[in-house]
Design a protein that fits this description.
Chain lengths: ~325, ~260
């Protein structure tokens, strides 16, 4: 194991951001990202993801707390950090009248150790659009141009703010493959997304943000494991919930009945499912529309948002 | 030419970064027809109207020749249209397109972003002033300048000051459309009060002494004085101090108020 494998490339402590009008978008968050890790900030719109990433990128000074990227303050020590980072903003930021090639050439002239422009354009599948003006690109093509420019300098740390928003399914998969390949090459990636699937697929670790705070952090599996699993089925005709074996004995923590549909929540999925199925075989009934599933990130996410709204502000931490 | 195939990691410098940005901005200037017309032709046409106005004035009494009125005015128009007004538009549109924000995520420093973006317009203004100077000298039978260093100094200060003032104006301009209007006050005040249409020598003393403090007045004064040689050392110094003071004030205002992103 290399000595620097656990080096923290990004360190955030007590970070706060307050906008001019007094709105506190980031309310004291802590996290760190190790070298070579893909870290996702997950949250609904307005959760404070972009406000956070902009502080990490050094675009604004925090109202409180501390950010270190590669050991430096990204706002006051721009010259030390910028040659080693790549940034993809949430929205383009290219002059609409320049062509793709002209935009790339301009950016390449401002990036230390820039790779050939054609190479990065090919990486994102834009080589055939080199002569097209930026204003004529589709939203997805603009996202890919932004990604290409972020990659121009072979950055050690890559910030991607909603990299796949506006992309079709294929473009999204291409971007995921690219990010995975970069991670395999040792690049540290911090991305924001509101696609749960994206965080689940890409992230080594993630933080779920809600109303400017981090509501949960850990690996996708850890965050998911904290949520109960779910069993859903239709009660057979003539049966009632009381006819089922005692639910508490099956490890079911919560049940709801909606018409004939029964929903069970449990932290012991195998025991609950086995007990239920053994009972059904014994009773000779068929459980129609049976659905047995482990908690997904989506459920964890919704559960956390619900908890946070209810005033439970403590961060759930899952040690790696 | 293949410049990027070497495997050694190249390091950018302020000059290389600004050159790259200025090159892109030059391409954009060439594609912006409205800005081009305003920047290139207006300063060539307006001096003609100053010339006809000059014929009506009692210039001899103030010791001026038509050339000594038209040439500084032409330089002033060029600074106002090709540099100041054009750059307000450039800064505002780049901000609204989020280009400035994007550039700030990279290695460019803030001053390099503004400087690189301003360079094509500043160069346009410089070339235009040189062309206008030659044209005035030839067409209006002007003699050689008596103190060319003052004229050169005035022109260079004017270019830097107008670029800085454009950034200040952009700080208080919200959209590309309003960028057509917000440069107007300074342009009108300069044309009327900085000795472009009417030399300050022909104004009442009290008015003239106020007008001397306007940003473009020292530029006009230095260019005119450079040609006529009528400027005393004290007057020249006063003009230089005024121009430098406005430039520093503008730089301070930019550092204080310039916005790199659109308002939300």
């Amino acid at each position: 194991m290399e000595a620097n494998e656990h080096e923290h490339v990004i360190e955030v402590t007590g970070l706060r951001r307050v906008y001019g009008g007094g709105f506190e978008a980031v309310r004291g968050i802590d996290f760190s990202v190790r070298r070579g890790e893909v870290f996702a900030l997950l949250g609904t719109n307005g959760a404070g993801k972009t406000s956070t990433v902009e502080l990490l990128e050094g675009l604004a000074a925090p109202a409180g707390g501390r950010v270190r990227v590669l050991g430096h303050d990204p706002y006051t020590d721009r010259a030390a950090v910028r040659p080693r980072t790549g940034v993809m903003l949430q929205e383009g930021g290219f002059p609409s009248e320049l062509t793709v090639a002209e935009t790339a050439r301009m950016w390449a002239g401002c990036v230390s150790g820039a790779r050939p422009e054609r190479e990065v354009l090919a990486l994102v599948g834009l080589e055939s659009k080199a002569g097209v003006r930026v204003k004529q690109l589709s939203g997805g093509q603009r996202r890919r141009l932004d990604l290409a420019l972020a990659l121009l300098g072979d950055p050690e740390v890559l910030f991607l703010d909603e990299p796949t928003t506006g992309l079709d399914a294929e473009g999204r998969r291409d971007t995921w493959e690219l990010v995975s390949a970069l991670r395999d090459g040792g690049t540290t990636v911090l991305l924001t997304t509101h696609y749960l699937e994206e965080a689940e697929n890409l992230a080594d670790r993630l933080a779920i943000m809600h109303e400017g705070r981090i509501a949960a952090t850990g690996t996708p599996a850890e965050v998911t494991a904290s949520e109960p699993s779910r069993i859903t089925f239709e009660l057979p005709e003539g049966y009632f919930v009381g006819d089922l074996p005692p639910l508490a004995e099956l490890g079911v923590s919560e049940h709801t009945v909606d018409g004939r549909t029964v929903r069970l929540r449990t932290r012991e999925l195998q025991r609950a499912a086995t007990g239920l199925l053994v009972w059904a075989r014994g009773a000779g009934v068929e459980l129609r529309r049976l659905d047995v599933r482990s908690a997904s990130l989506e459920e964890a996410f919704l559960g956390i948002a619900k908890d946070a709204s209810a005033g439970t502000t403590a961060t759930k931490e899952y040690a790696a | 030419m293949s410049t990027t195939t070497s495997t050694a990691r190249t390091t950018t410098t302020p000059v290389s970064r600004m050159t790259s940005l200025a090159r892109a901005e030059m391409t954009l200037l060439g594609r912006s027809k409205g800005t081009l017309v305003a920047a290139l032709f207006v300063p060539l046409v307006l001096p003609l109207s100053v010339r006809s106005a000059a014929e009506e004035m009692d210039l001899a009494e103030a010791g001026l020749t038509p050339g000594a009125v038209v040439l500084p005015a032409a330089v002033g128009f060029s600074l106002l249209f090709a540099v100041y007004s054009a750059l307000v538009g450039v800064f505002v549109v780049r901000r609204e397109e989020l280009v400035l924000k994007r550039l700030r995520t990279g290695e460019l420093r803030d001053a390099e972003i503004l400087g690189g973006s301003a360079l094509p317009s500043v160069l346009t203004g410089l070339v235009q002033c040189l062309v206008l100077t030659v044209a005035c000298a030839v067409l209006l039978d002007m003699s050689a300048p008596s103190a060319p260093h003052l004229a050169v100094l005035g022109l260079l200060l004017g270019l830097v000051m107008c670029a800085a003032l454009a950034a200040v104006t952009a700080a208080f301009t919200r959209t590309g459309e309003s960028a057509q209007v917000t440069p107007m006050p300074l342009m009108i005040v300069s044309m009327l009060g900085s000795g472009m249409f009417v030399p300050l020598e022909l104004l009442p003393d009290r008015v003239a002494s106020v007008c001397e403090l306007l940003p473009l007045t020292p530029v006009v004064t230095l260019v005119r004085g450079g040609w006529t040689g009528d400027l005393s050392a004290a007057e020249a110094l006063g003009a230089l101090v005024t121009a430098v003071a406005w430039t520093l004030l503008a730089v301070f205002a930019v550092r204080r108020w310039f916005r790199w992103e659109p308002r939300h």
